[in-house]
Design the sequence.
């Protein structure tokens, strides 16, 4: 039962064991991760184009993604609001972090670019499908699987060389509390959403374990449950990030923990500029720790819950 988990988790562990000291090599790894994500999402789009009754399937995808997103958001906001009332954490008006990007628009454009890649894959599949037939979709699935293994090695390497010592993570109680609150509330939302999405309990938990890491959740879930559910996971987590860009400036001074936590895994990268711009320097280490913990938890949780399928 756990063989599938081990096969996919092994590359992540192998990558985590690799220590990279060269800054130039780390940059190359970061670029390779981005390129791999785009490539896999392109393949996912091609696979979506191979579904029968594509229009109705895409309508179902959008409805399921909206349902999962709505339930997850209610659970997340409720839990993070409760936490924000119980922790002594207030945003300040500190200056911008040195060398940190501050453009929300630039970050949102990056998210929308991934969406465009999936759409491009669907268009490619529709154009080439009549000529290449089923071989196109079979090849796309196979290529996506092999690129996924390479991506997991690279992601493991990224996490190991992120410059975030374990001691620093464990000592930051606020970041840890925010990450645990977001993770637990997301998993409860996954359990609540599972029967509404016609999923088993473990598949619902897997769908909720992306914690905002839309590229990875779409890839891992799509590999196990098919491109349709991979698309649901992608849009669910992508919409979280887009809402976070709007929510953070509005609530960070009244409910700081909620603003930092709602972005999930993205609080250490994509939504970090918005957090530091509106919340100040003091919020940055908390956001980074919270995002890092969720990024570390997401892949093994998704793979573990999917491995429980019969």
Sequence:
């Amino acid at each position: 039962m756990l063989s599938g988990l081990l096969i996919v988790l092994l590359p992540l562990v192998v990558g985590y064991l690799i220590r990279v000291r060269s800054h130039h090599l780390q940059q190359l790894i970061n670029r390779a991760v981005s390129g791999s994500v785009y490539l896999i999402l392109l393949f996912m789009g091609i696979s979506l184009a191979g579904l029968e009754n594509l229009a109705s399937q895409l309508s179902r995808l959008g409805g399921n993604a909206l349902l999962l997103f709505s339930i997850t958001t209610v659970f997340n906001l409720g839990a993070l609001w409760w936490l924000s009332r119980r922790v002594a954490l207030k945003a300040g008006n500190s200056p911008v972090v040195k060398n940190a990007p501050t453009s929300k628009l630039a970050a949102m454009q990056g998210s929308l670019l991934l969406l465009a890649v999936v759409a491009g894959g669907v268009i490619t599949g529709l154009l080439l499908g009549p000529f290449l037939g089923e071989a196109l979709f079979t090849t796309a699935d196979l290529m996506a699987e092999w690129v996924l293994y390479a991506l997991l090695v690279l992601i493991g390497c990224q996490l190991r060389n992120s410059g975030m010592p374990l001691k620093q993570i464990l000592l930051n109680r606020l970041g840890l509390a925010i990450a645990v609150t977001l993770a637990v509330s997301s998993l409860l939302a996954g359990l609540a959403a599972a029967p509404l999405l016609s999923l088993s309990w473990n598949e619902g938990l897997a769908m909720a374990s992306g914690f905002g890491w839309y590229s990875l959740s779409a890839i891992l879930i799509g590999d196990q449950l098919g491109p349709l559910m991979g698309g649901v996971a992608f849009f669910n987590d992508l919409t979280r990030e887009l809402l976070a860009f709007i929510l953070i400036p509005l609530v960070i001074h009244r409910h700081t923990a909620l603003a930092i936590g709602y972005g999930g895994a993205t609080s250490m990268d994509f939504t970090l500029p918005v957090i530091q711009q509106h919340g100040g320097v003091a919020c940055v280490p908390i956001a980074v720790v919270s995002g890092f913990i969720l990024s570390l938890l997401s892949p093994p949780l998704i793979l573990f819950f999917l491995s429980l399928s019969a």
